[in-house]
Amino acid sequence: MVELKKITILSDNMKECIALDIAPEKKDYVWSNAITLAFAHRRFKRYSVAMECRAIYANGTMVGLISYNYYLEDLDFKEVCYRIRPVMIDKNHLNKGYEEASLRKILEEIQRKPHGEATAVFASYNPKEEDMAKIYEVVGFTKTNMKWQDPDDDDMITRMSL
């Protein structure tokens, strides 16, 4: 059973979260948990109104981190929306269904619109991550033709209406 628990850089379990290890083949696609938690702590106003982080637990063991932002105005999305950041699952817990389960759980939270109204949820993945492409499709995202402002970022952007 997968469950999500709120986590911040000030949480008691923060060190456990930071100690989770990204698989070598995923290091180019996912931020370290330390960076994600620090980014959320700072809540950079130019990027979003809020960033929420959730530790992913499977049967009582922390196995990863998932986070999302709420955007009022964004150069890339051009609508009020939520964005799920790439899911980080510890290298010892990959391919056990935790990515899909945690996405479904975070979508339940986002659909309650905790930070305000929005028209969509966006998520992205590197085109080389065929496993994540399938997972996003299974949970209800569709590929878009959108491109990031950063020309070096070729991630596939997906969208789900709220």
Would you kindly provide a written description of the structure presented here, covering whatever features stand out?
Helix 3 (98-111) crosses helix 4. The protein is an alpha+beta fold. The chain has helices at residues 14-19, 33-42, 98-111, 130-139, and strands at 2-6, 50-58, 61-71, 81-84, 88-89, 120-125, 142-143, 156-161. The longest helix is centred in the middle third of the chain and has 14 residues, at 98-111. It contains 4 helices and 8 strands. Strands 1, 2, 3, 4, 5, 6, 7 and 8 form an 8-stranded mixed sheet that branches. The model has no long low-confidence stretch (mean pLDDT 91).
Write the layout of secondary structure elements.
Elements: E1 2-6, H1 14-19, H2 33-42, E2 50-58, E3 61-71, E4 81-84, E5 88-89, H3 98-111, E6 120-125, H4 130-139, E7 142-143, E8 156-161
Parallel strand pairs: 4-6
Antiparallel strand pairs: 1-2, 2-3, 3-4, 3-5, 6-8, 7-8
Helix pairs in contact: 3-4
Please report the distance between the alpha carbons of the first and last residues.
26 Å
What is the number of E strands? 8
Task: Estimate percent helicity.
Answer: 10-25%
What low-confidence regions span 5 or more consecutive residues with pLDDT below 50?
none
Keywords, separated by commas or semicolons:
alpha+beta; 28% strand; globular
Quick overview of this protein structure:
The chain has 162 residues and is an alpha+beta fold. Helix content is 25%, strand content 28%. Strand 2 (50-58) and strand 3 form a beta hairpin.
